[in-house]
Amino acid sequence: MKRRTLLLYFTALTIPLLFGLDVWQSVRYTALERETSRLEDAQEEWIESNKRLMAGIAVLSSSERIENIALHDLELEKIPPEAVLQIKIAREIN
Asked: In terms of residue numbers, what domain contains 6?
């Protein structure tokens, strides 16, 4: 009889404990799910920002734009390729 009473007390204590653990796990899961969603949104914002920055870099570094700035704003002159002198220095091998 004593063993049966002990088993009844044990069961009466563990069932609410298991329900409490289940609720705690659900709350923790919901919080983690919310944090994951927030981080995914932030990641999407960073990706879109990077795409816009890369497009801006492509526009600003285009050779037509640089040539236009050099010729008009800086008043530089374009020289013909035959006017360019190239010097090659050969390495002396001992």
From this structure: 2-83
